[in-house]
Amino acid sequence: MTFLSFVTSCRDRCMRTIGHLTRRGLEWTGFLESAQLTVTTHSDHPDIEALPPGIIYVVGGPTYQKWAFLKCPCGCGEPIMLSLSEKKRPRWHIDTDWFGRPTVKPSVWQTAGCYSHFWIKKGRIHWTADTGRPHASRVGSEG
């Protein structure tokens, strides 16, 4: 590790910590709505069974993102895996603001099980009207 990459890594960790502490303080005072989800980034894949609720676990590094893992927010506990690769379809994109709150695009729709359908905006879950129902392209194909 070069000195410059070490300094950059320390700066990034400090900024994330400051953002996290600021978010928690603003949530505590009521100036900021509490986040339902936050992001953590790691270079390796998570243990899916041990994945805690309320966390989007991004596999990647400072300049790239490969996968995102989270537990279904409906409460069923099903793991959700989203491809963040530019080369794969379907794919999603995660933007994280200064407070560590994720916005995921496009929406997330479970294609089996609970059929949850939701948006994640600034760390909050926004349920769609059709959550709990199969996607229209799957209706009639299940037997």
Rg of Cα set: 17 Å
Biggest β-sheet: count, sense, barrel?
A: 4 strands, mixed
The DSSP helix count reads: 1
Question: Percent helix among the residues?
Answer: 10-25%
Task: Describe the protein in words.
The chain is an alpha+beta fold and 143 residues long. It has 2 domains: 1-33; 35-143, no CATH class. Helix content is 19%, strand content 32%. The strands form 2 sheets. It has a 4-stranded mixed sheet with strand order 1-2-3-4, with no helix packed on it.
Give a concise summary:
19% of the residues lie in helices and 32% in strands.
Please supply descriptive tags for the structure shown above.
143 residues; alpha+beta; 2 domains; four-stranded mixed beta sheet; 19% helix; disordered C terminus
What is the topological layout?
Elements: H1 3-29, E1 38-42, E2 55-61, E3 64-71, E4 79-83, E5 93-96, E6 102-109, E7 117-121, E8 124-127
Parallel strand pairs: 1-2
Antiparallel strand pairs: 2-3, 3-4, 5-6, 6-7, 7-8
